[in-house]
Fold these 2 entries.
Entry 1:
Amino acid sequence: MKRTACAAFAAAILLLLSGSYRSALSQVLYGSVTGTVEDPSGAAVPGADVTIINQGTTQQTAVKSDSQGRYSLLNLLPGTYNLRVSASGFRTAEQTGIIISPNIVGRIDMKLEVGKMSEQVSVSAQAVQLQTDKADTHTEITTKAITNMPLPAYRNYQSLINLVPGATPAAFQNSVTDTPNRSLATRINGTNDNNNVTRIDGASSVNLWLPHHTGYVMPAEMVDNVNVTTSAGDAQQGFAGGAAITVVTKSGTNEFHGSAFEFHDNQHLKARNFFQAPGVDKPLSIYNNYGGTFGGPILKNKLFFFGSYDGTRQRQGSSGRYSVPTADQRAGDFSAYNTIYDPTTGTDRDPATGILTGKDRTPFAGNIIPADRISPQAAKVQSFYPLPNLPGTASNYFAQAVPAFNRDYVDVKLNYNRGDKETFWGHFGKNWDLVTGYPIFGIAGGPAPGADPGVGDTKIYIASIGHTYAFSPTFLMDNVFGYQRQDQSVLPTESFGTNYGEQLGIPGLNGPEIRQSGFPNFDFTGLDGLGYAGWIPAFRTEENFTMSHNFTWVKSAHEIRFGFDGVLYRMSHWQPELGAGPRGDISFTGGVTALNGGDAPSQYNAYAAFLLGDPTNMQKSLQYILMTPREWRFGFYGQDRWQVTPKLTVSYGLRYEYYPLMTRAHGKGIERLDPDTNLVYLGGRGDIPNNVGVTTSKLLFAPRIGFAYRLDDKTVLRSGYGINYDPMPLSRPLRGFYPLTVNFAFPGPNGFTQAVDSNGSPLDLATGMPPVVGPDLSTGIVNLPAPASERSPYAGELHRGYIQSWNFTLERQLPSNVLASIAYVGTQTVHQFADLDINAGYPGSGSAGLPYAAKFGRTQ
């Protein structure tokens, strides 16, 4: 359980510059205006004609005031509007320059003067308005703030979320290879960062593998408005336990508008690092971000377009010092170092197992390995190592590289006004990225200064279609369909496609399919190893499907809204990263050439064992089952915004959410470990049901309630309460554990003997990796091997936690168009998703102290 509270005093420094703190949340993608029409004495004017006109497109929406003079104008697309009110016996009143933003309810009360309708009184709207009709806490970030304020982190609009009260500083969380969009993660009011959910023009945008990241980071020049709701939002907003972030893109108007930009930075514009050696040039650092926008009419007053291009080119030089074997070590001459023992000597054996203990070994003569004892395979492998270019045996190799980062965006939006009753709009965006890290050992891989080694190729697509229809001025419908897709591959830079294990003469390392190709991994104690990280290669495809259908009915003092929300997440990942990786990994820790009971094995012992061809461990992991999570989530809601008196507005609603249990493609279910038997049950295989005994709740009700009371024309008191459920996709924690990914390990019987196969026969570089055979899945039940890790839900109901949020706010409009707010905001998280390590032991107890070590031989 987590609880946090914050008090915030915001003197809205957001004056005319950004207008970014405005009135409250409404219909998510659209704005609305409400108010009353009165005569000079303050009496209601029923039947008045109220019309709002979009200045950019001339689109009109008209209603009549009711018997109490009330009116509501709904489903208004973002833009600048004029409001006109007319009634018989009164002059026509007009207010111009009204800014309509998504998720906003603006209040405009109109007083009519006695006179002829042909006479007109016109005033300009205020730049900022009080939040008079809703109780939520939110921050609005407008296009002016985004384009005019300095944006760090690749000109990312998300950096402005730092200005949201209760937000922790937004920061990068993963490498540029994994997240080339450079999404920022933040925590809001103490909630988990994977509880924040972003929707772009109504389309859910979540990186399933890294759910604390937005899937598509909209370029700054394309953003029209960002609304960040942090507490007590409407019942329409769901699937977001922390912040509900709504991003709306720009639309075209009847006038052509465009822009062009470029931002440039390089090492010559930066200060020298204080610790940089004198006379050494500053590392290469070039950053270019450029692009432009253009929008306008296709058919005047009917069809409009807006588009943008954003490109980034970055070259960020980096360097480092690494450890490689010296010339004498490569020749097997360790006379200058600690003692190297011959693993073929000694006779002392463990009486229980009969295995040599290594306690009575004898050293090599002169501490030199004879040339005829050096493995031919090891000689081939070490030819890929460069000689040191610095003195010493550690950090003796200096290398530098210039990783490349190329990123491009294209976004287009169309708006079509079919008539005063019906509108359509659509947005399509594509982002493609290429990230290249250059390993210091070339084909043989190794570390890559300043980047992940390899080539990351990412393409992200996002699209949404919206529709609004007015059955009558008081009954409206709006719909959204959204789709997002990410295709990503990360490959070894140069070695992909070639089975280097065969060329090196080491059988069993690569495999029959190209995804297992590349240079194998060779790990040495005290040296930088050859090969690529076990998580490379990676092939990731993720999809978000969104649909939303909403209806609004205005009846007297009530604005009733109800609807349905559905999201489907799909993933298809090939990445056997839980273990050594698909190319195979050979480890040399040094115990093979050390004396059991003598000095601790060193890097010299490790490299000597390598030259002899005697590894400590051989491993290889396979993607035994493709990772294909499928997750639905459904939401139904109803809410009422009730204008109880001219000064008091109360909102109340109820949302129901249902999160069916995650499944996998082709009719398969999830996996579950039974800790009492050490058996893994595979849903949808054999006679095992898809849910493997795990259920989800069908009672996830989320009430929302709030009020806003206008103390006077310049002061509002608000308070609200709401519940949201933890939206974290299970695709992340249940992505790829055993037996989806199977790691085959062949360690030595102890730390001072070489690796052995399943029959206890010694393994060396010449014998290579034994054939690997995965578990039999036909019965749907497999035993969990001792060294394997597993992440699994318990049998029974899977509890999806919930977040309670509440606030109490006083807001005042000050002179010079300044808003000041003081608020208390609280959140409490109950039953948050978390991992429980059921095999945790006491510090220092070793494997013997693990709860399942004695029972099942479990080490993890």
Entry 2:
Amino acid sequence: MTSARTISMGTYLRRPLAARGACSALAATLSVALMLCFAAQATQAQTVCATAGNDGPNAALSGIVNTYYPGVGTAAAGANTISVGAPTGAGTTISPGDLLLVIQMQDAALNTSNSGAYGDGVAGTPGSGAIAPITAGLYEYVAAVSFTGATITIRGANGANRLINTYTSAAATATHGQQTFQVIRVPQYSSATVTGTLTAPAWNGATGGVVAIDVAGALTLSGAVNVDGKGFRGGGGLGTAGGGTGTGTPTATDYLLPSSFNLNGQKGEGIAGTPRYVYDGTSVSDTGVEGYPGGSTGRGAPGNAGGGGTDGSTTVNEENSGGGGGGNAGTGGIGGLTWRSRLNIGGFGGLMSVAPAATRVVMGGGGGAGSRNNSSTIAASGAVGGGIVMLRAATLSGAGTVTANGADAYNLTLNDGGGGGGGGGSIIVSLPGAVNYTGALSLNARGGRGGDAWALQAVGTICGSAPCDTDNRHGPGGGGGGGYVATIWGGAANVAGGTNGTTTNAGAPTNVYGATPGTAGTSTTLAAAIPGASSGAQCVPLLTVTKTTSTPTVRNTPTGVTATYTINIANAANRSAATGVALSDNLPALFTYAATGTITLGGSATRPTVTTPAVGDAVPVWSSFTIPGGGSVALTFTVDIAFNVASGTYQNPATATYLDPARTTVSGTTTASYNSASSTGEDVTVTGAPKIVLDKTCTSPANCLDPTARQVPGTELTYSITFTNQGGANAVNFIIYDMIPASTVFKVGSVTYNANGSGIPAPTIDYSQQARSGATPPAPPAPWITYAPPGAAGTFDATVNWVRYNFNANPIAPGKSATVTLIVRIQ
């Protein structure tokens, strides 16, 4: 009979995890069940794993660790290949087993009517948002199979090892803004500590803006993860004075207008596309493309990007309203009024028409630029939104910070409109359960502050060579909307909206002048499954070790016996490969390794190096194997059982030792063990055999063993026979036949017996006159004819040739010993 055993899972899952639902029932039958049932908030149905802990242990993280590949063309749902362009970032190229994050950065349709229906198509409301379809923010984790040229082959989790979502990169058209997706290599650490500032390169219109790591074991956050101002770019502040041309006729209330008219502020960048001019936090650049359908300027807010300030002066662009704030889970604030005309036509705030969620995360939208015609440099530019942070680990601790704040807008704009603040970014922290978090992290995804207008203006000061106006207000920028934070423990996070900028005012230093703050974002408990491939914490190998024997009963012999075992190691399906697997078997006492039989590698298991036990090993070890998810190794071997093994049933464990994906040292290992007490599958019952060892020696006179000493006739010699049962069973029907040496005569009454403390009762003793045997060892006479010496004790009887010691009624137990002695005289 054979049966599987419950196993020890090793150190990497020795964490307190709550069993729920079906997991509780499973716990009643398997001792490891609680280790397999992660808390419901993060339990996933995915069945795809990359190589957990692939990037090694004890990583000290700072700087940029991700590599970013711009997506090329379309990777349709159900596809298993993705085309990419040249990478940026860390520079670690994709290899088989890597974990990848595929994320649609930009793709949302817009209503492009020049009205309040701009953006989301809802008339009568501020012109902002987007209309379906909106695929921006959809993402999934996948496992890399290969990377050849510009093509990545992947395993996804849509049920057919393919992509769940469709991802598209395409240039802007007259009807749709730019669509972009990127593929990000996600380092898979065994254990890691954020010691400095972990960050991402700023979004450049194709890649960047995202920090994503996966830790199979413990993640300690002592430093900071910071993607502040790494998200969608702000609208570039431009000093324009009208006079341009384009299709249509500008009005003082336009929601959109091509940049070629040299009017209004630029819209920010966001999920629906990229404007012609963008501000990256340092400088303004020209993308060369009118990236939004109908135009890149004006107060309409495309998706989560802030709208640019509509100027109100359709000829010289001198009224200078403020730009709207970028948005995310919170909506960006509205830019302030125009200068003299005081029109409420500042940029609207960015708006996510579909709420962020565990399956959809976006960067914070860029703020819209204020309308500008006078000031120089980067004045009036909208601010950059916050980036994205995605952390997955088995456990998380530390008191560091994770920030994805939108940037504050440029705050030194003089006589022009201020830019909108950047929208807060997104943070997702996924652990196997809330109990796996023991930190005191500070999580922040705030909206940025809107820019001031006339920031240095004060009543009575001198501006150039003329007195400054006493009421010279221009439109400040709206505040950025708050971001999105979702954690498994649902703790508080700062997702406040950014405050609006201000402007000068007669008799008072500041005035909001129609600008509004961004609204707060969302801080929530991560309640839905993370899409795609499972985390390293959920992909650690799950080995089962079983052991059986094909020789459940063996009968020992005086020279020993053999037994045969088979050990099977199986890795659960859809798990990371167990590497460096060494199999050891701690054999019972007096069992030793003899030979290896067949080794069967199943499910693509391999044996990269071959190390085998030495004959006679008490703990044979075989290495090394690599066992992928669903793979197995079956190994058959024989052992020698020593002749003196006692009768009984023998059990023993077997252990697989392998590289721990959650290790904290380079060579750290964990184990999966077969519990020998859990079944009778490997039990070997040994029926022992007796083995009597006789030691006959001359004990008197003292020199009787000296080969140089001649014993003269008449000398009495004392012979002792000590017998020991060195076997594993009682010796029964035990008889010693002692032949009197030639040329000697037996001394009547000289036989003595010493039990040596063994408790063996004295034997029955009798004699025979039958002829001595010439064989070696001497053969006793058969049949035995008893002779009774007639003489008195102390006399000598020359006719006694044999002495028989009969222990028939007294079995000799294993390990027991006794001695019989007699005296003869040399003739």
